[in-house]
Lysylphosphatidylglycerol synthase domain-containing protein (Lacinutrix iliipiscaria), 324 residues
Amino acid sequence: MMNRALPYKTKQFFFVLIKLSIVIGAFYFIYNKVTSNPDLRFSDFVSILSKNRLFSLKNVSFLIVLSIFNWFFEIIKWQYLVDSVKKITFFEALKQSLGSLTASLLTPNRIGEYGAKALYYSSNYRKRILLLNFIGNVLQMSITVLFGVIAIYYFVTDYNIEFSPQKVVRFFLIIVIIFAFSVFGAKQKRFRIKGFSIKKIIEFIKNLPSKTKLLGFVFSLLRYLIFSFQFYFLLHIFNVDIFYMDAMVLISSLYLLASIIPSVFIFDVLIKGSVAVYIFSAYGVHEFTILSIVLLMWILNFVLPSLIGSFYVLTFKLPKNNAI
């Protein structure tokens, strides 16, 4: 009797230890990235926030409301996507979205989100959950690409960005090679994305209700408009005199370039900061200002939700038929 009980208790202990490790690790890296940025000292960051009255009740409230709506539409999008295979409540979608965000902090390109969300479901649902999460990310990325490509065109033409002929030829050569491999790979049944063949992914997408795909696209669009406006509002707070459409050209260019650079999520703020400095320097925005805004966007839309998500990581329980 004791021999049978011991392995179960041991597994339970390690399961709790893993959850604690995820939360402690997430907290440590958030603290480290906020306080140990080599390009932006934390004391200077706080000083510039105070100087620009960011801590006023009006500004803080409005910024947090925008972040809440940003994640509200992400949670609603996830709920509607999952509803195509299994009905879940808004609260369940919230737990899964924020909990998986915290669990994926330390993984490259937030790939840990796939496994984290799948763990909320019994084994017979997990493959479909992985595909739905992939589709949700593709929908969000499609909005980023759509706005970003248009923005990059105007950015290059309006700001007279010069490229050497060699760099242009090299860029198009890389695009052609990637396209060729993509076409070749799509024809191969063994070619896989996230462990699934291209054919299976296409069939799964085709079988999704049109309403689900349309709503997923709309919610992704709303999220993009919200967090890009939040960026513009922060520019306004930092006294950057810029029209909304001009700001959108820079912001959309930033998000497209930053999104195509592979990174461990904990370095996401550093990568976005570097790209943002380059993009906004064309408009004459001070480096310190843009680094502060990028860090604030990261805190508002990722750090705060992940802190809430840590509670759901700690209280997470495996589905009954998959319990340890």
Q: What stands out?
A: DSSP finds twelve helices and two strands in the chain. Residues 123-158 form the longest helix (36 residues).
